[in-house]
Structure formats: structure tokens, C-alpha cells
């Protein structure tokens, strides 16, 4: 066996999947999806083919051409990180059908009962496949090293709707003979059921597969964007207002990075249990409701997920060892979009918040500096356990360092060449460095590329932002340590980002009287805390500033 990814059972000697056709029957009472997946391979193949699974109950595997059963073996040994390998024994075959059920404890699925929804009437379910959880929804070669197209028939109660990271084809009644053996015909065609069909015509890594089913409504906010959320007017209206400038962002991104290749850029605001600030699923970005704050600062999260449309979704890291290629590039692109739309000060605030977060991560990983590198070794490591700001912020700093060296105009040209050269491909760090050296001759003499990508810690030529507002806010935070608190006039024009930068630079412990000062600015402070929690959820960072936690407790005690 020759694995190609430390987090997958996929064998490099096996043919890759090019298309997956899914039939999904959503059984809300049992919190299961009765399913079948038709996998099409790149070539005909004879031999054992290994797929990734986690907590799937496999019923049968069939040859769809003659409906004969194909031998398979689901390993009884469960790897705590990778799950269970499913071995399918093929004979001159290029497609096969797997019939299975998901588990109520699927790591990619969150089932909500009606009491956990806004209207309290119907259940809700959403998926989160990043980074290695698609295997708990369908058997697959669950690695970003390659891409796959897919289609899906989704059978749900008629009161509910479905959105997916794919093109919506139609909503209609179920038909006999279309269920792909995922469940009984009578169940599939039962009363009160509808089918929604989707197709993803562009190849994506499996972690970008996504859907949500629930009582969902929408508002149109631009020619390429609808905002979806639970079907409650207040939620939808607030989301539409918050993200009303999304089309300007898309156009700004296109000016910087080239044509937007995904046709739609729709947004889904999920229930509060969604554990990220945002997830960059193509065509349907998932967002936490905490980004809706009524001051458009939630647009920063949207800018990050939009930037992924070029860096991450269009060009993808081969494995999580090279995760910085997704997030470092996207963080850089996000800040360029923010700068173009909101100005240099807004971008500098984001850079400053990121810089403080990067410094804090050095302390977090002081006993395991491997994960302060850009190019990591994650063999035997769950990627969720080492999720951090490092690939985001150190990756950003690396690209910013290259920009400072060659100039923005030259770096913009390089970025467009890079995206054009590798679009719809998966790459690793060495491929990027080779491309960089080929297109920026002599760059290795000006910047220590090995130190930046393979070295631990923060390189000496990394840099804090230079900005009047950034310097002023950090200075005020330092003065807080000496007992001086800012005046109302000094914070009068602060919004979420300014407060976040201020809070992040405060000491870990303070006097009670100082906390009461912060409560004096209750509304703005609470907004900033929401920003912090939203951003930190996006990175699984549990090291929230203790002062912010104290303020939260105090606010709820008022």
C-alpha cells in the first residue's frame, strides 16, 4: 500500500474517483440518512480498492450494470483519526454502487430537534466535512489530493428545503426506480416527501461537499447572491442587510485575482450551533449567525470565504501538511479585498489582530514547535487537534514579505499567474516554491524560503502592520495595564474590529474596577466579544482573552 495522505486510506496505486452520484433519504426520527453512492472511477480496474469511511453501516455493494453483488470488507479495526477502510473487490469495473446508512453520531452531521431551531416547528440538519469528515457521510477517497464531481437526489419532508454546495436542478415529487436502492421504494415515494436534485459540475475536494436541510427561506442581495437562513423574517432581513455589499466584494476579488469561476456565491446563515465563523463551500458559503452584528463587520468573514473561491477551492493543498497554501493565501486575499473596499486602516486592523493571534500561538505550541511551521508533519495527528492561526497568519506574513520584496504590482501579476497555472488542481509547498522561483528569479537570495516554510517560530523579517489607528489602539491597551482607561471620545467611533484589537491586547488579569469600566461601554464591548468568538470558532482557538470572558459574565449579571 502506498498512501498519498497521512489522513486517508487512499492508495496511490488505485484509480481515483471522478464522479459520485448520491441518493439520500433523510430520516429525522432516527437521525440517519439512508443512502447509496454510485462511484465512477477514472479507469476500469481489477483488484481491491480502498475507500475511507467513518461510522457508516454498509449494507451491500453492487455492479450497477448487472445488479450483481460485489465482495467488500469493512475493517473491524477503527483508526481513531482515519476511521475504517472499506475494501471493495472489483473485476474489470469502473463504477460500483455502495448502499449504506449514516450514523446518528456522524462526525460531519449536526441534527437539531425542533426546539433548537428558530421557529420550533421542524428539525434541521447541516454538514461540516472539513477537514476529514466527508467519509462519515459517504464512502470516498477522502483526501484533498484530488477532485471529484458529484450529483445528489435528496429526499426530504415536503415542509423542508435543502441547499447544497452545488447547482440546484429542481424540486419535485419522488419517482419510483430512482432511489438507487438506498431505501424501500415505498419509503422513498411515501406521502409528504419531495426530492431536490443538485449537480456539481466543477471538480472539488471532498471536504467541500456540504448541505443543509430545514425550514429555509431566502433573500436576494445581488445578481450572484442569495442569503439563505431559517425561514424567519427577522433573521433573513438582518442577514440581507449585513451582506448587501457582497456583489461589490465579488467584483473586487475578480479585479485582483481573475474571473470568479463558481457562477453563484450564495450564503447560508446557520443556527448558532455551527462551530465555525464561516465555511467556504463553493456556491453556498456557510456562516454562523454571530457574524450578523448590524454594522457590516461580518463582511470580513464573508470576504475571507469569498477569497477561498480562488485560493483553497480553486487551488487546494494536497494534504493538511500544506494547509497554509489554503489559509495563508486566503488570509492575504481577504485583506486585499477589505483594503480595496474599506480602506487601508480596516486592512491594518485585521493584520494587527492576526499578528497578536500569531504571537499567542507561539506560546500555545511552545512544547511542540512542529506546529509553528508552515510545512508540518501531521502523520498520526488529527488535523482538528492542531487547528490554529499559524497557517493563516504565518502564511499571510510569508506572502506579505514576498510582496514587500518585489512590490505590489509585480506580486499581483505573480498571483494571477499562480491562480491561472494551478486552477482546479491540488498542490504542495514544493510546487509553490518551484513556481515562485521560476517566476520571480533570485527570490531565494532575498528571502530565506526554507526558514519561512520549514522553520519554527516567527521569522525575523515578519512584520507588524504600520497604521496610525493600529498603533493608537495598541497603545491604549498598553496604557490600560498602567491604569489608564480610554475616554468615551477616544472610543466613540470604534466598531467590532477596533474593540477586538483592543481586547486582544489587554492583560490576562485585571482589577474588578477596570472590568466595570468596560461594562460602561456595554454595547460596543459585547459586539467586540461576538467578533472574537466568531473569529476564534473559525480556528478552534480556545485561548479567549480572560478579560473578555470576565466582561461576558458581568454583562449577564447586570
Describe the structure.
By secondary structure, the protein is α+β, with helices and mostly antiparallel strands. The protein folds into 4 domains: 17-211, Sandwich (Immunoglobulin-like); 215-309, Zincin-like (2-Layer Sandwich); 312-466, Orthogonal Bundle (Neutral Protease, domain 2), CATH 1.10.390; 474-555. The protein has helices at residues 185-188, 233-242, 246-257, 299-307, 324-342, 344-364, 390-406, 408-422, 429-439, 443-446, 449-454, 468-481, 488-491, 496-504, 512-520, 522-537, 546-557, and strands at 17-27, 32-53, 57-63, 68-69, 72-74, 84-101, 109-112, 124-127, 148-157, 161-164, 167-172, 193-204, 211-214, 216-222, 225-230, 266-269, 278-279, 284-287, 315-317, 425-427. The strands form 4 sheets. Strands 1, 2, 3, 4, 5, 6, 9, 11 and 12 form a 9-stranded mixed sheet that branches. It has a 5-stranded mixed sheet with strand order 14-15-16-18-17, with helices on one face. α3 packs across α5 and α7 (390-406) packs across α8 (408-422). The N and C termini lie far apart (62 Å). The model is unreliable at 530-558 (pLDDT under 50).
Amino acid at each position: 500500500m502506498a498512501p498519498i495522505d497521512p489522513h486517508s486510506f487512499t492508495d496511490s496505486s488505485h484509480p481515483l474517483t471522478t464522479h459520485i452520484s448520491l441518493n439520500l433519504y433523510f430520516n429525522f426520527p432516527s437521525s440517519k440518512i439512508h443512502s447509496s453512492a454510485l462511484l465512477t472511477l477514472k479507469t476500469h480496474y481489477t483488484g481491491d480498492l480502498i475507500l475511507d469511511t467513518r461510522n457508516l453501516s454498509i449494507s451491500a455493494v453492487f455492479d450497477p450494470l448487472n445488479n450483481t453483488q460485489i465482495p467488500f470488507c469493512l475493517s473491524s479495526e477503527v483508526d481513531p483519526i482515519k476511521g475504517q477502510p472499506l475494501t471493495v473487490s472489483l473485476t474489470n469495473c469502473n463504477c460500483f454502487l455502495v448502499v449504506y446508512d449514516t450514523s446518528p453520531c456522524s462526525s460531519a452531521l449536526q441534527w437539531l430537534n425542533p426546539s433548537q431551531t428558530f421557529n420550533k416547528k421542524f428539525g434541521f440538519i447541516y454538514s461540516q466535512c472539513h477537514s476529514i469528515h466527508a467519509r462519515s457521510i459517504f464512502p470516498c477517497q477522502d483526501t484533498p489530493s484530488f477532485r471529484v464531481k458529484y450529483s445528489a437526489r435528496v429526499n426530504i419532508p415536503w415542509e423542508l428545503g435543502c441547499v447544497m454546495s452545488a447547482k440546484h436542478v429542481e424540486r419535485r415529487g419522488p419517482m419510483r426506480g430512482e432511489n438507487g436502492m438506498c431505501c424501500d421504494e415505498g419509503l422513498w415515494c411515501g406521502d409528504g416527501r419531495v426530492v431536490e436534485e443538485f449537480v456539481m459540475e466543477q471538480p472539488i475536494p471532498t471536504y467541500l461537499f456540504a448541505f443543509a436541510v430545514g425550514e429555509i427561506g431566502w433573500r436576494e442581495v445581488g445578481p450572484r447572491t442569495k442569503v439563505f437562513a431559517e425561514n424567519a423574517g427577522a433573521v433573513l432581513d438582518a442577514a440581507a442587510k449585513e451582506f448587501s455589499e457582497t456583489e461589490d466584494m465579488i467584483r473586487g476579488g475578480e479585479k485582483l485575482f481573475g474571473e470568479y469561476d463558481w457562477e453563484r456565491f450564495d450564503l447560508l446563515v446557520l443556527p448558532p450551533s455551527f462551530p465555525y465563523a464561516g465555511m467556504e463551500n463553493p456556491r453556498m458559503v456557510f456562516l454562523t449567525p454571530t457574524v450578523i452584528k448590524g454594522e457590516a463587520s461580518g463582511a470580513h468573514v464573508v470576504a475571507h470565504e469569498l477569497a477561498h473561491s480562488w485560493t483553497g477551492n480553486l487551488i487546494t493543498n494536497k494534504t493538511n501538511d500544506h494547509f497554509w497554501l489554503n489559509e495563508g493565501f486566503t488570509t492575504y486575499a481577504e485583506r486585499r479585498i477589505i483594503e480595496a473596499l474599506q480602506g487601508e486602516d480596516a486592512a491594518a486592523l485585521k493584520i494587527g489582530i492576526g499578528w497578536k493571534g500569531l504571537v499567542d500561538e507561539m506560546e500555545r505550541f511552545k512544547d511542540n514547535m512542529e506546529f509553528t511551521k508552515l510545512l508540518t508533519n501531521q502523520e498520526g495527528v488529527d488535523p482538528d487537534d492542531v487547528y490554529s492561526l499559524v497557517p493563516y497568519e504565518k502564511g499571510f506574513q510569508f506572502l506579505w514579505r514576498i510582496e514587500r520584496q518585489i512590490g505590489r504590482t509585480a506580486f499581483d501579476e505573480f498571483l494571477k499567474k499562480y491562480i491561472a497555472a494551478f486552477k482546479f488542481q491540488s498542490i504542495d509547498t514544493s510546487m509553490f516554491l518551484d513556481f515562485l522561483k521560476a517566476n520571480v528569479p533570485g527570490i531565494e537570495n532575498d528571502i530565506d524560503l526554507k526558514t519561512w516554510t520549514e522553520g519554527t517560530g516567527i521569522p525575523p523579517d515578519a512584520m507588524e502592520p504600520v497604521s496610525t489607528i493600529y498603533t493608537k489602539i495598541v497603545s491604549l491597551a498598553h496604557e490600560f495595564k498602567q491604569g489608564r482607561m480610554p475616554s468615551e471620545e477616544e472610543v466613540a467611533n470604534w466598531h467590532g474590529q477596533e474593540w477586538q484589537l483592543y481586547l486582544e491586547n489587554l492583560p490576562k488579569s485585571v482589577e474588578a474596577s477596570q472590568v466595570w469600566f468596560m461594562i460602561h461601554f456595554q454595547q460596543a464591548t459585547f459586539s467586540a466579544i461576538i467578533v472574537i468568538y466568531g473569529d476564534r470558532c473559525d480556528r478552534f482557538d480556545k485561548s479567549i482573552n480572560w478579560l473578555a470572558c470576565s466582561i461576558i459574565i458581568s454583562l449577564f449579571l447586570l
